[in-house]
Specification:
By secondary structure, this protein is of the alpha+beta class. The protein is built from two helices and three strands, in the order βββαα. Strands 1-2-3 form a three-stranded antiparallel beta sheet, with helices on one face. The protein is elongated.
């Protein structure tokens, strides 16, 4: 099952910050595409290593 998460990407200085507010996971990149790719990788690594309990705990209510 593939999960979908919200991604907020904002310009910061010379690059971009990508944030998944639901799980408090962030990444960065020189371009929007790179920031999105790096955030996807961070989310994949998190979901591969975190237990279901950890994922539930980190999710913010109302999201």
């Amino acid at each position: 099952m593939t999960r979908q998460w919200i991604a907020i990407i904002e310009r910061e200085g010379d690059g971009y910050i990508a944030l998944c507010p639901e799980l408090d996971i962030a990444s960065q990149g020189a371009t929007v595409a790179e920031a999105r790719k790096n955030l996807n990788e961070a989310l994949e690594l998190f979901s591969e290593t975190a237990s279901a309990t950890e994922i539930e705990h980190r999710q913010h209510e109302g999201m």
